[in-house]
Design brief:
- The protein is built from eight helices and 19 strands.
- The chain is an alpha+beta fold.
- The strands form three sheets. A 14-stranded antiparallel β-barrel has the order 2-3-4-5-6-7-8-11-12-15-16-17-18-19. Strands 9-10 form a two-stranded antiparallel sheet.
- α5 runs antiparallel to α7, α6 packs antiparallel against α7 and α7 packs antiparallel against α8.
- The longest helix is centred in the first third of the chain and has 21 residues.
- It starts with a strand and ends with a strand.
Length: 424
Amino acid sequence: MKELKPYRILLGLMISAYGNTALADGYGVFDARTQSLGGTGVALGSLTTGHFYNPALTAFHEGHEERTQDGSHSFHSVLSISDGARTTLDMVSDDLESRLSDAIDNLNANLTEETAREGLEAAWDLNAAIRKLDGKSINADAYVGYSISIPADLEGGTFFVGSRAIGRGVSDIRPEDYDLLDDYIEVLKFIESGSSDGVDHPELRDGDGNLLNPGLRMQSSGSGVAVLLSELGVSAAKQYPLWGQQVSLGIAPKVVHLRLFHEYWRAVNGEFENVGEDETDLYFNLDVGAAVTLAEVWRVGLAIKDVRSKSVSTESGRRVRLKPHARLGMAYIGNSWSAGLDADLDKTKDIQDIDQRQDVSLGIEYRTSFGMALRTGYRHDLAGSVDDQLSAGIGWEIARLRLDLTYAQGSDSQGAALHIGWAH
C-alpha cells in the first residue's frame, strides 16, 4: 500500500478502462467507412471490410485481381470514448490531483495570499472535474488492425489481424469526499482573503498548523473491467447458383487470444489499495455469412459473428461471457448512391452481464466521379443502454491510395476512425 494523492483512484480507473464503448459491446465497428455509415456493414460493406461484418461480401467481385487490382492492403484504427472517459483523460493531462498536492505543499512552505490563491484554483478545478465525472461511466472501445483482401471472379478472400479492446470503469465517489474538498476550498478562501472570507478548519491542519494532504482522508473507490481480443484469421467467400440465383456464402475462421483484466481501487485511512487480476485464453472461433443480390441493385445479407460462445472467469469470480451476434442487413447499391439498413436479431449483454444492447443502424453513401465518397449514418439501440449516435465521413481514392476519415457523436460519447489502404 502507498499514500493516496487526491483522486489517484479515479485516474487509475482510466488505465483499466482504456483500451471500449463498453456499455454493451454489440456487433462492433472495425473500420472508418462502416463507422461513418452508423455501423451498417452486413449488406453495405465493401470488399476490403466485408470480413469484419459479413465474410460473404468478398465474393461480390467480377474479374481476377491480377487484372482489376481491386485488392487492398488496409490499416484500420477506430476509437469510441465516453464523456466520463474523456473527463478522466483531461484530469490526467491537466494533472489536477498533483496540482492540488503541490499547491498545498507550497502554501505550507510559503504562506502568502498568492500561494493560497494557487491552491484555491487547483481545488476549484479538481472539484469541478470530479462533479462532472460523478455518475458517468468510464468507457472506451478501440480497434487497430491490418488486412489484405484478394478478390477474384465471383469469389475472394481476406487475411486479417487485429486487436479490439473493450473496457468499462465505474467510480464511486463518496459524499464525504465532496464535503472534504468543500472544506479545503473554504479554508483556502480564508487564507487567501486574509480571514475576511471563507471559514477556517482546524481539523484540516497538523500540530504545526500546516494543511494536511487531502488524500489522507479520501474514502472513494472504483473498479474497472477490460477485455482485449486479438484475432488472426482468414475469410473466404464464393458465389453459388441456388434456384436460379447467385448466392454468396462466406466463412472466416480465426484464432482468438482473449485477455480479461479486473482492477479494484480503494482508499482506506489515507492508504491506497489496488487489487488487480487478469486471465488469458487462446481459442478458435469463426464468423459466417450469406448474401444475395436481387434485381442487380438490391442486396440482402445475414451474418453471425463469433459462432462459438466463450466464458472466462478470474480467480475472484469475475466472469465475462462472449456470445454469438446475429445481424440482418439490406442495402441498395447504385452507381453513385448506396444506402443500407442493419438490425441485430437479438439483444446482447455487455461484458459485465449488466446492460443489453440491440442496434439498428442506417447508412447512406454518395460517390462522386472524381474518387471522393461522402457518407453519413445513424445508430439507435432498441434496448436503450447506449445513446443514439450520428456519424459522418469522407473517403478518397487517389490512384492506388485509399483514405477514409470518420467522426461520430452521441449525447454521451465521441468517436473517430482512420483507414489507409493501398491497392495491389
